[in-house]
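Run log // design_07
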């Protein structure tokens, strides 16, 4: 028996829309969205955790760096399960760090720290968890990107219109940093 819950973001979901209900999701069957060349799959979010944390995966091909951004109230972790990801982070004093993460490697980004990443190998997957006093941001992916029922990467990258970058961030604790430069050499 399959139970399909509706959330405010989609007409069909396997994730219950309220906290306090145990549930199970098979691999890849969370709420999915295409953004840029990547597939984001949310397994748990603010609705299920009373806005204490989220849990999602990001899968993608080798590609361009995603735009620099920060989360004023959210801490974020990157755990690589396959492929490789180059993580760029700037601390609150302006010192920049760059690290190539391979399967089993972990990266931590404190709140307010500018960061970006680039998939360095095809078939890369990141497990992400974010938490903070301001809530969670996982619904950002489908609101900036496009919800999908597909289990695969987008056939063509989904690049949002420029104006959308200004409207979505305030609601989802994401602040884009246009023109931010990485001086780490990567």
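design_07 sequence
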């Amino acid at each position: 028996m399959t139970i399909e819950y509706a959330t405010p973001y989609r007409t069909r979901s396997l994730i219950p829309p309220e906290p306090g209900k145990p549930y199970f999701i098979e691999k890849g069957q969370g709420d999915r969205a295409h953004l840029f060349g990547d597939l984001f799959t949310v397994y748990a979010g603010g609705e299920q955790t009373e806005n204490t944390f989220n849990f999602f995966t990001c899968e993608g091909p080798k590609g361009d760096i995603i735009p620099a951004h920060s989360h004023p109230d959210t801490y974020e972790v990157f755990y690589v399960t396959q492929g490789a990801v180059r993580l760029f982070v700037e601390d609150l004093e302006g010192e920049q760090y760059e690290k190539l993460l391979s399967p089993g490697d972990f990266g931590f980004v404190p709140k307010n720290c500018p960061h970006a990443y680039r998939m360095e190998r095809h078939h890369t997957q990141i497990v992400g968890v974010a938490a903070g006093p301001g809530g969670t941001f996982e619904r950002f992916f489908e609101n900036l990107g496009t919800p999908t029922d597909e289990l695969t990467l987008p056939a063509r990258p989904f690049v949002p219109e420029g104006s959308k970058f200004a409207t979505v961030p305030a609601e989802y604790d994401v602040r884009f940093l246009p023109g931010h430069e990485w001086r780490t050499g990567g």
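The helical segments are 46-49, 140-144, 164-167, 169-172.
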